[in-house]
Design a protein that fits this description.
Pfam families: ARMH3_C. It is found in: Membrane. The chain is mainly alpha-helical. It has three domains: about 190 residues; about 140 residues, no CATH class; about 160 residues, no CATH class. About 65% of the residues lie in helices and about 5% in strands. A hairpin with a 2-residue loop joins β1 and β2. It is elongated, with a radius of gyration of 31 Å.
């Protein structure tokens, strides 16, 4: 018996002597692609069409194969198909609705491909016609809104969201997508919120809903009033905001889990054994193999929520069980295809487990902790462009958090202590930290740890100057809050001071190479002013008097670095070059640090000479410091506890435009409309009459 195989809409017998024949739906598509009205030959044409299983591949391919002129000839039939699709969305029979949704997706994508060509016709005119566009799009949006808000099929809701994602991402630059004007006028914002506030809907569709919202918020956000921005900024419903937070936390948790699994698999593998045998000379190569696709789409959603809605800040600290510890999925999670930007939703195992009640024996977590862990992974490797963008967005989100008064309140709350296991980059000169030894501390300690980790691990030839500036700014903003509210944080400040001094040392050692690309004096000034902040106000926020003594000890111990920095900036500030002004600012900023060094060094040398000690211990140096504070004179420096607040439109517009473009391309590429087989749909809609 001859086997049958399906390809491009044709059912072809394996026997070459037989003429290939077409599916009925393909024949019906062919009728649409003529200049004749299909109902002339068959008055029930449109009724029958939506009972046929959609052949997406054939329909899209047929549209793409035509040139602009040919497509314009059949414009009336395309308009008619589009309008009948919208009508079918109001049908009682779910199969018709499903087929109409899938047909709309194919139509939009197919016509979009032609819009890229030189013919330059308007996509709205091609799909619906200018004269009917407003009414048709209004009906379409109202139908989608009704389907999303109804109690009906989850499969239909899924397809509605996919159609909306298709509409939004039909152009690379979403702000050039004129179809979205109708999505702005006929808002589906409330439908998205309803999905996020319901546990069942959120589990099934939360991911797509959050990504859709993030994209809609970015439509012409700097050029006109975007209703989605306005509405998102005033949402105050706790269930909705928590639902959005859970969806984001689950997606980030899934990424963290996949990374941890790969890391463990990597460490237990042959290469790890080989590395242990020959030392750590291959550690950089080994680390490169641990790669999980980043998820900029969900990160953008988190950013928009944090940036636009002050009420969302409370969600960051909302406790839930540690998602990675709750349950182990019984079936393997399917691997996602490798794409430039991951937008694959988390597995349902992770989603459902996250909504279980808290267990006293399980480590509690929150969205901020999950985000910090995610950040610690993506910020390890900034050589890859997508990870660089992810790392930058992570730091922008942390900047917004560090500026928020309420966020700072819970970050520094002594009653909210967590054990945060950040991922640390493998380095030859340090051992891997044992997870079990991590203390429970206020969350701000984890933020500072993340900043210190970044500072220490990215001093390299391709120096990420922009990320370093953001990193130092975050530390500064946290210190400003501590100074203002007199928060005495028990933190290992020495690690931060040491990292900052090593950063200055790196800038000096690589002066020639770095100055060819960057103004390193901006960063050097920020670092020096962090020390000035500790010197001037440290007595108001350092945990103990001995902490302040240790600050002086570190400055004195590492005085050679500050001396070298002063020599470098003095040399450049006295020359009439491009760096004269920025270098002179650093020269003035070093005045108190140099006063400390010049005041205490002679006294330490004198103490050593009197007591006949060749090398003083730390305690002996600290004794000299404590007994000579009274005679130290420092200058009061203005503006150390002031900073410029974050502004997206003026400084980050280009970055977000490019980021949203990347996300749009990737979402469009990964959209799958044919994931629902006709058999499954028939089973779900078994009541069809």
């Amino acid at each position: 018996m001859a086997q049958t195989e399906k390809k491009g809409g044709l059912l072809r017998k394996s026997s070459a002597s037989k003429k290939p024949w077409k599916e009925k739906v393909v024949l019906m598509y062919d009728e649409i692609f003529t200049t004749e009205d299909p109902i002339k030959c068959n008055p029930r044409f449109w009724e029958e069409l939506f009972l046929m299983k959609v052949n997406l591949e054939y329909l899209e391919g047929k549209l793409e194969a035509l040139d602009g002129e040919e497509l314009m000839k059949i414009k009336d039939n395309i308009n008619c198909l589009f309008q009948h699709c919208i009508q079918a969305l109001g049908e009682e029979h779910p199969i018709r609705v499903v087929n109409a949704l899938q047909t709309l997706c194919a139509l939009i994508r197919g016509v979009h491909q032609k819009n890229k060509s030189t013919s330059g016709f308007d996509i709205i005119n091609m799909l619906v016609g200018f004269d009917k566009a407003e009414l048709c799009m209004k009906n379409l949006m109202e139908s989608l809104d009704s389907l999303l808000c109804a109690e009906g099929s989850e499969s239909l809701k899924s397809l509605c969201l996919k159609l909306l994602l298709c509409l939004v991402t039909v152009t690379d630059n979403i702000s050039q997508n004129t179809i979205l004007e109708y999505v702005m006028i006929n808002s589906i914002f409330e439908a998205i919120l309803q999905i996020l506030s319901s546990p069942l809907s959120r589990r099934e569709h939360g991911y797509d809903a959050v990504v859709l919202l993030a994209l809609l918020v970015n439509y012409r956000k700097y050029e006109s009033v975007n209703p989605y921005i306005v509405k998102l900024s005033i949402v105050d419903d706790e269930a909705t905001l928590n639902g959005m937070g859970l969806v984001i936390a689950q997606a980030l948790s899934e990424y963290n889990r996949q990374y941890k699994d790969k890391e463990e698999e990597h460490q237990s593998g042959f290469f790890s054994a080989l590395t242990n045998m020959v030392g750590s000379m291959f550690i950089a190569d080994a680390d490169e193999k641990i790669s999980v696709q980043t998820n900029e789409a969900i990160l953008l959603a988190l950013y928009e929520a944090v940036h636009l809605n002050r009420n969302f800040i409370t969600v960051l600290a909302q406790s839930h069980p540690e998602m990675g510890l709750m349950t182990t999925p019984t079936s393997p999670i399917p691997t996602t295809p490798v794409t430039p930007l991951g937008t694959t939703p988390p597995s349902s195992d992770v989603i459902s487990s996250a909504e279980l009640p808290l267990d006293a024996d399980v480590q509690t977590s929150n969205l901020l902790i999950t985000f910090l862990k995610y950040s610690s992974i993506v910020m390890q490797d900034t050589k890859d462009e997508h990870r660089l963008h992810s790392g930058k967005l992570c730091l922008i989100i942390l900047t917004c958090i560090a500026e928020d008064q309420y966020a700072n309140a819970f970050l520094h709350d002594d009653n909210m202590n967590f054990r945060v296991n950040l991922h640390r980059m493998p380095m030859r000169h340090r051992k891997k930290a044992a997870d079990k030894n991590l203390p429970c501390r206020p969350l701000v300690c984890a933020v500072l740890d993340l900043m210190v980790e970044f500072i220490v691990t990215h001093m390299m030839k391709e120096f990420p100057m922009d990320l370093y500036v953001r990193c130092i700014q975050i530390v500064h903003k946290l210190l400003c809050y501590q100074k203002k509210c007199r928060v005495r944080l028990h933190y290992t400040w020495r690690e931060l001071w040491s990292a900052l001094i090593n950063l200055l040392k790196f800038l000096m050692s690589n002066e020639t190479v770095l100055l060819a690309k960057h103004n390193i004096f901006t960063l050097a000034l920020m670092v020096v002013n962090l020390f000035n902040m500790f010197i001037t106000y440290g007595d108001t926020f350092l945990p103990t008097p001995s902490s302040y003594d240790e600050l002086y000890y570190e400055i004195i111990r590492m005085h050679q670095n500050f001396d070298n920095l002063y020599s470098m900036v003095l040399r450049l500030s006295t020359n009439a070059g491009q760096w004269k002004e920025p270098a002179s600012k650093v020269t003035h900023a070093l005045v108190n640090i140099r006063a400390i060094i010049n005041h205490f060094n002679p006294k330490i040398e004198s103490y050593a000479a009197v007591n006949h000690i060749s090398q003083l211990s730390e305690d002996q140096v600290l004794e000299v410091v404590r007994s000579n504070y009274d005679t130290l004179t420092l200058k009061l420096q203005d503006g150390l506890d002031q900073y410029e607040r974050y502004s997206e439109q003026h400084k980050e517009a280009a970055f977000f435009k490019e980021l949203v473009r990347s996300i749009s391309i990737n979402v469009r590429k990964n959209l799958a409309f044919n994931t629902l087989s006709q058999e499954l749909l028939l089973k779900e809609f078994s009541t069809i009459s």
